[in-house]
Write a structure and sequence with these properties.
Elements (H helix, E strand, L loop, with lengths): L1 H4 L9 E7 L8 H12 L8 E7 L5 H17 L5 H8 L11 H16 L1
Parallel strand pairs: 1-2
Helix pairs in contact: 3-4
Amino acid sequence: MGEALELYLPSADKFFYVFCNHRGLKGIKKSDFIKTLTARLLPKLPSGVQIKIEMVDSKKYPNVQIADWVVGAIANFINEKPCGQDYMAILQHNIINSKELFKDYWLDKFDKQKTQSRD
C-alpha cells in the first residue's frame, strides 16, 4: 500500500490522510499496519507534515466504498467470476498502477485449494 500511496508524493499539504477499510487485514494487526505505513511514508514527506491513518467503516465513507467496489470488481476479473470481464472493460483504462499487497496470502490460499481438490 505504501508503494501505491507514494504515487501521490511529494505533497505540499500540511496533512496527509489515509482512510482504510476497518475490516481485518490479512496477517497483520491494524496497529502494526499503521506503524509500518507511517514509517514508510514519513521520510518521503516534507518536514512538519502530519500523517493521519484511519481505519473506517466503508458503509459510512462513500469514497472508501467506491474503492471497495473497484477492488471487488478487479477480484471478479482475476478469479474469473460472473461479470468480471465486463467490470474490467469499464475499469482497465483508468488503472494507473497495480500492486498485489497480500501476494503470499493468496498464493498460499490457492496452493491449499489445489491440494484439497486433488485429495
